[in-house]
Design goal:
EC 2.3.2.25, Ubiquitin Conjugating Enzyme, transferase, single chain, Ub_conjugating_enzyme, four-stranded antiparallel beta sheet, UBC, alpha+beta, 4 strands, ubiquitin conjugating enzyme activity, 4 helices
């Protein structure tokens, strides 16, 4: 779909020109395959993840931006975090129920950096073992139960 392609090219240009602090997109790779982007994220200073580097993979369907991208952490260093499963799936409402076409890759990256930065304790979600064993390969096919952080 041409409108999807135009939107992705525009977002790629914006993300490479004005990335959130600690975020870097592999422009050459993304340009070669607009459907899959690799984005590196560095933990912010003075947080539990300071100095750590992580890799996100964004996968876009032809329905983007009307459907959310599939976003997962990949590689050997997946953050241990209450909203990130050990298989790299991220429990973040804007990637599912709260997605809107007004959001962008840049907004998703900013939300993920913010989520990492506000973490108080490195631990997996309480249902990590069951989820990883039973989940769909695509996190967008998951029915998330968002955990209450106030408990």
């Amino acid at each position: 779909m041409e409108s999807c392609r135009r939107r992705l090219l525009k977002e790629l240009q914006q993300l490479s020109a004005e990335p959130p602090r600690g975020v870097h997109v592999n422009v050459e790779e993304a340009t070669a395959n607009l459907a899959v982007w690799t984005v590196d994220v560095e933990g912010a200073e003075n947080t539990l993840y300071a100095g750590e580097r992580f890799t996100l993979q964004f996968s876009f369907s032809d329905q983007y931006p009307f459907s959310s991208p599939q976003v997962v952490f990949t590689g050997d260093n997946i953050p241990v975090h209450p909203h990130i499963y050990s298989n790299g799936h991220i429990c973040l409402s804007i990637l599912s129920d709260d997605w809107t076409p007004a959001l962008s890759v840049q907004a998703v990256c900013l939300s993920i950096v913010s989520m990492l930065s506000s973490c108080k304790e490195k631990k997996h979600p309480p249902d990590n073992a069951i989820y990883v064993r039973t989940c769909a390969k695509n996190p967008n096919k998951t029915r998330w139960w968002f955990h209450d952080d106030t408990v």
